[in-house]
């Protein structure tokens, strides 16, 4: 009975998160909604929904996660196609087919597929599966590093280089090292220059890897006390454009919210609610911040999200 209660609770939480993520996509594409849902264990939730309706039943003995990605990829889901493309490149789940991985990379959805950034870079670096283009390869290696919480050191880089060497027999160690060096150069400068650099990537490369690169630069600026950079990270979080690295939101939002900034109050409240749905204490904290933000002059779209989340919190606290 206890395990069933835990399962039922998790299903309620994930259903709420699904609704929240779809709400977040009010001004975005289905790709952004899928990326958002992924961080809330979309696979767990949707697998069970499909199992219950009979629409998705993994083959006996097959990994249900792999089966789910195949199921969604066959129906055109960007996230499913992203992971399947990575399987084709590496060759450990399927027989290797780099041409299929390259086909996905040439499509419109690669910008939200962090998993394939280094593989795409390797194809461009070596000319395997795609026309050789070292400048483009460097760009996607840099983009890959931007999706991490840190710039990888020797051990991390060695693992990735070995994986690519196994798949392509090519050595991309020097190219990845140069991408490392580029990023270390980007870390330099004043918070204002880092913020400006981030704005450049957001505005000039939204269809490529502008969001993860900009997010990394904004975090560095925010770490140095740049308020506009911190608020930009909050906006990207709410738009679900940087869902992979959301744990820094409280660190940046709390001091700004406590100083009276309504926008920071909204982002902090939404974070506390979305990321802690099984904790009523956090829900009350979120409710406090959202109530304060709701009394302020904020963009209409943000007010809509706040209003909907406040209603969800009331229902959650009543359970």
List its traits.
about 325 residues, mainly alpha, about 70% helix, about 0% strand, disordered N terminus
Describe the protein in words.
- The chain is mainly α.
- It is 71% helix and 0% strand.
- It has helices at residues 2-24, 30-39, 42-53, 64-74, 78-90, 98-105, 117-126, 134-146, 154-168, 173-186, 191-204, 210-223, 227-238, 249-258, 262-275, 280-294, 300-318.
- Helix 4 packs across helix 5 (78-90).
- The model is unreliable at 2-45 and 47-54 (pLDDT under 50).
Give a summary of the structure in a few sentences.
This protein has 17 helices and no strands. It is mostly helical.
- How many alpha or pi helices? 17
Mean pLDDT: 75
Order of SSEs, N→C? HHHHHHHHHHHHHHHHH
Distance between the termini: 18 Å
Number of strands: 0
Biggest sheet overview: none
Oligomer: single chain
Radius of gyration: 21 Å
The proportion of residues in beta strands is: under 5%
The coarse silhouette is globular
Class computed from helices, strands and strand pairing: mainly alpha
Q: Which blocks of ≥5 consecutive residues have pLDDT under 50?
A: 2-45, 47-54
Helicity level? over 70%
């Amino acid at each position: 009975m206890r395990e069933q209660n835990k399962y039922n609770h998790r299903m309620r939480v994930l259903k709420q998160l699904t609704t929240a993520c779809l709400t977040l996509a009010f001004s975005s594409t289905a790709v952004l909604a899928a990326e958002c849902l992924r961080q809330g264990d979309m696979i767990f939730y949707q697998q069970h929904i499909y199992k219950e309706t009979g629409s998705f039943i993994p083959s006996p003995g097959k990994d249900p996660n792999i089966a789910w990605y195949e199921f969604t990829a066959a129906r055109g889901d960007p996230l499913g196609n992203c992971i399947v493309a990575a399987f084709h490149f590496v060759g450990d789940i399927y027989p290797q087919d780099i041409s299929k991985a390259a086909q996905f990379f040439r499509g419109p959805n690669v910008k939200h597929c962090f998993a394939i950034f280094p593989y795409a870079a390797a194809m461009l670096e070596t000319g395997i599966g795609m026309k050789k283009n070292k400048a483009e390869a460097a760009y996607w290696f840099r983009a890959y590093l931007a999706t991490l919480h840190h710039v990888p050191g020797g051990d991390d880089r060695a693992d990735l280089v070995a994986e690519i060497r196994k798949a392509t027999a090519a050595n991309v160690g020097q190219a990845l090292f140069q991408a490392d060096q580029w990023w270390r150069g980007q870390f330099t400068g004043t918070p204002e220059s880092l913020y400006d650099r981030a704005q450049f990537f957001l505005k000039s490369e939204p269809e490529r890897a502008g969001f993860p690169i900009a997010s990394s630069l904004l975090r560095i600026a925010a770490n140095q006390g740049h308020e506009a950079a911190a608020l930009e990270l909050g906006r990207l979080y709410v738009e679900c454009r940087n869902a992979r690295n959301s744990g820094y939101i409280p660190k940046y939002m709390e001091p700004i919210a406590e100083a009276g900034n309504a926008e920071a109050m909204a982002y902090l409240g939404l974070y506390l609610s979305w990321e802690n749905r099984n904790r009523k204490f956090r829900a009350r904290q979120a409710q406090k911040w959202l109530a304060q933000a709701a009394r302020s002059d904020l963009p209409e779209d943000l007010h809509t999200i706040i209003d909907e989340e406040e209603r969800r919190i009331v229902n959650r606290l009543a359970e």
